[in-house]
Design a protein that fits this description.
InterPro entries: FAD-bd, FAD/NAD-bd_sf, FAD_aromatic-hydroxylase. It contains 9 helices and 13 strands.
């Protein structure tokens, strides 16, 4: 894509993760690649790079959502929450695990979203542990604490994960989610009591459940899915952005090579990317277990 050097300049330069016991005593270490992969950059930086490179050629519309999709030989007829309806040659759904495009074109979420038995909350707080491009992981059956600091030396990212059998927790309000987190970490020592207090005032509180998206086909007619919408590998896999970028690049390449034959392009895209997705989803399942899911 011609942007590797610019992306590398935004590397978080993580140096590894310390494994600690219930008292915070170091008992082991994981290499940086365990969480950061070969190259890790903050999402905001990657988004800014991609937007800047494409803003003159792509029409961006923010603060809107698709309401309906209807396909025929002429194209895909789309209505929106705010914008005027339009007809498009193709629709690419790259709108996440709970994809509106997938729901409208393929069916309800329950048919494709597989819960992996873990939920959790993420937020940032002051870096009172003085972490320097390093992480700390405390894991036990049923729950895990992961802390790290990279891009902003003054801030520490907190992840509190716990075993659960329901993905419906994502639909609760923040107050209910906080209560569930506190109950799940009841009795935990080390830094946990302080982290639970700081959670309540965090402006960037985010609750989510680890899940994967499994589909026989990522396309139907003139609609195709990319990234988490079609093949989420679970957030702990650390491969969401990589899958999305590689999937999008492969899809674009196949469309360019096929001319007007989009069915052939869609099939070739899935054929080429499927082995990569299968490996990442296996890694995602293993990562969830490492982070404390039963």
């Amino acid at each position: 894509m011609g942007i590797l050097a610019e992306v590398r300049a935004c590397d978080t330069r993580m140096r590894g993760t310390d494994l600690v016991d219930a008292e915070g005593v170091k008992i082991g270490e994981l290499p940086a690649e365990a969480f950061a992969g070969e190259l890790e950059v903050p999402k905001r930086d990657l988004t800014a790079i991609l937007h800047r490179l494409t803003e003159d050629d792509v029409q961006y519309v923010f603060g809107d959502s698709i309401r309906t999709l209807a396909q025929d030989e002429a194209g895909v007829h789309v209505t929106f929450e705010h914008a005027r309806p339009g007809t498009f040659d193709l629709v690419v759904g790259a709108d996440g695990v709970y994809s509106t495009v997938r729901r409208l074109a393929f069916g309800p979420h329950r048919n494709f979203v597989r819960h992996l038995g873990m939920s959790g909350v993420g937020f940032t707080t002051g870096n009172h542990l003085g972490l320097d491009h390093r992480g700390i992981l405390q894991s036990e059956p049923g729950r895990a604490v992961y802390l790290f600091s990279a891009a902003d030396a003054d801030r520490m990212t907190v992840s509190l994960s716990f075993a659960t059998d329901s993905p419906e927790l994502d639909l609760l309000d923040r107050g209910q989610q906080e209560e569930i987190v506190r109950a799940s970490f009841d009795g935990a020592g080390w830094e946990v009591p302080r982290l639970l207090k700081e959670m309540t005032t965090a402006p960037d509180f985010l609750f989510s459940s680890a899940c994967q998206v499994e589909m026989e086909h990522w396309y139907t007619g003139r609609v195709v899915l990319v990234g988490d919408a079609g093949y989420c590998a679970a957030p702990p896999s650390g491969m969401g952005t990589s899958q999305a970028l590689i999937g999008a690049y492969t899809l674009a390449r196949e469309l360019a090579a096929s001319g007007a034959d989009h069915p052939a392009a869609f099939a070739a895209y899935q054929y080429r990317v499927s082995p990569f997705v299968a490996a990442n989803q296996q890694h995602g399942r293993e990562a969830v277990k490492m982070l404390g899911a039963d």
